[in-house]
Amino acid sequence: MGTTALRSLPEVVLADNSRIPANPAPGSKGVASFLEQVRQTPAPHERSSRGRLVFALDATMSRQATWDLAQGLQAQMFRTTAALGGLDVQLVYFRGFAECRASRFVADGAGLADLMSKIQVQGGHTQIGKVLRHIREETGRAKVGAFVYVGDAMEEAVDDLAAIAGELGLLGVKGFMFHEGHDQSAGQAFREIARLTGGAYAAFDASAPGKLAGLLSAAAAYAAGGRMALERQAREGGEAAQKLLSQMR
Known about the structure:
CATH topology: Rossmann fold
Strand order of the largest sheet: 1-2-5-4-3-6-7-8
Low-confidence stretches: 1-28, 41-48
Distance between the termini: 33 Å
Helix content: 40-55%
CATH class: Alpha Beta
Shape: globular
Oligomer: single chain
CATH architecture: 3-Layer(aba) Sandwich
Number of domains: 1
């Protein structure tokens, strides 16, 4: 397909993801086959350049408190990865009526905070499928080490999301699905996406910001330094790193 349409906003260029193609029909191989191929897919080894992480958030109306929390915590991801060669992060969010956008990649916490400060939450339905298709497209341009998704709901067909998640798993893109609240449908879908990508799922409560901070740092460490960096963080007592590693193949 052609280059994704760009729309210019003050001091930031955002990509309008509405042109991302519809999900292709799943292949004939079953989930078990997908998982076996994911298991055999090595973690990213391209360490000659900075790691790349897609940081995706639900920006629908119920997310205001967590959006503010994530904005305050995101700089820790960059601090965590400084010794690993650094990290470039792309912000992806959805809100309102079919609005799903991706920022440019930024290389520091101040830049990401500036992007997030320009965004206000709006009512709307989840668009997780668009997010996953964008990540698939982005890693086709240059390797994405991992993606983080933070949300509290899921209003889409789980099988459609699972098909794209399986493709990301085959590409070696691990998904870290961080779930706020107790919505059972969301929890089931997030666990399945994490499983199919070879990543990990974790629930958190916005009233305990330390847990989300630890999860973001652990995911960033993986994106920048691979499994060895995550294992090192776990050996140093990182509870979030230990939790994620316990699920990852």
